Amino acid sequence: MSDVNRQSRWRLVMGAGSEELCGELSGEEQLRDACLGYLYDREYGSGGRNVRSGEGGGLEASNLTVPDWINQIHELFPKKTIERLEKDALERYNLEEMVTNPEVLSRAKPNQTLLKAVLRTKHLMNQDVLKMAHHLVRQVVEELMKQIAQDVRNAFQGSLDRRNRSFLKIAKNFDIETTLRRNLKHYDPELQRILIETPFFFSRIRRQVDRWQIIILVDESGSMLDSVIHSAVTASIFYSMKMMKVHLCIFDTSVVDLTSECMDPVETLMKVQLGGGTDIGNALSYAAELVENPQRTIVALITDFYEGAPVAKLYSVARTLIESGVTGLGIAALDEQADPTYNHEVAARLVQMGWHVGAMTPGELANWVAEKVRN
Length: 375
What we know:
Layout: H1 3-14, H2 19-22, H3 27-40, H4 66-76, H5 79-92, H6 97-100, H7 102-107, H8 112-121, H9 127-156, H10 176-182, E1 187-188, E2 193-194, H11 204-209, E3 213-219, H12 225-241, E4 245-251, E5 255-257, H13 265-270, H14 280-290, E6 297-302, H15 311-324, E7 327-334, H16 344-353, E8 356-360, H17 362-374
Parallel strand pairs: 3-4, 3-6, 6-7, 7-8
Antiparallel strand pairs: 1-2, 4-5
Helix pairs in contact: 1-3, 3-4, 4-8, 8-9, 9-12, 9-17, 14-15, 15-16
């Protein structure tokens, strides 16, 4: 351990007022210090962590709310440290607002910050609080659905809506049900026949889309939470539009197929278990078993590409999928910002194999898929 790293650790332990002894903290370390101060400074009042009072830099503890604090510790600390912080918050300092008090949740303003905090602490909640949290999650998700749905539908407008008719009068596109219904007024009682004045046809593009399949694999590691939320909502919108056959799976070291829950992203999100290891190769192997027609299948892998299992399996399965004709799409981030942190080496190897890799907003994903199925 370097002297700089050792000094920073002591600075975090001792709190504000130890700058002369331990030096100043970097930007991210200041955020860690604010999180530690938010919890442990209450042990000694306003004087800091048992050290003389002093002005700390960066984000002040007073600016943090409980949801902010929960989200930040999950982003800034390793799993064992998070578990200790949560244990101390609940047992030592009775910081129970988020996980034991349904009245507090009922007064909370629904927003994505609160949604993420609920998903990170739902395993600590009793049934009464979990019920209230479930209601809160639904409110936030419904608002998010409204924001995303229009972008997704716009991407497919005119090509995937079965209500859109084609002017190409091709026999295999003939829509007999609509044709009969629309021409009933031309029924001839004497001949007992319907005279077809205007035949109707499905769009050929729509008929091609019916043969497409999209398999969405979502890494449920803690760093991917924003992408998990947007993946659940986007998959639900795809599913509800009945454009193609949609599969939704989440994974860590194992795979959970949530396709049966796909219509309700709230149920999907409440089943997510954040954290744990990551076995991307295993998730791709599961996807390979679902493929029906490789030439009409998209595997959308949403992950930061940090593989916890031997990476050779990941590369082997990824290459096999591409060679079979599957379209591989690796998404390093799926949210409004599309600003990812990911393993560039693994992503680059996938690109060399023929995968498409990038960060996307849900609207950009919809445009990409729509363009692909039109070709």
